[in-house]
Amino acid sequence: MSETALSLKGVSKTYTSASEKLTILRNISFSVETGRIVVITGESGSGKSTLLNLIGGLDTPTSGTIEAGNYQVGSLGEERLTEYRRNVLGLVFQFHYLLKEFTALENVMLPARIAGLPKGEAREKAEMLIAEVGLSDRKEHYPTALSGGERQRVAVARALINDPLLILADEPTGNLDEGNSRMVEDLLFSVVRKHGKTLLLVTHDKNLAARGDRRYTLHAGELLPV
Ligand SMILES: Nc1ncnc2c1ncn2[C@@H]1O[C@H](COP(=O)(O)OP(=O)(O)OP(=O)(O)O)[C@@H](O)[C@H]1O
Ligand SMILES: [Mg+2]
Question: Whose C-alpha lies nearest to ligand 1, atom 24?
Answer without folding.
Answer: 44
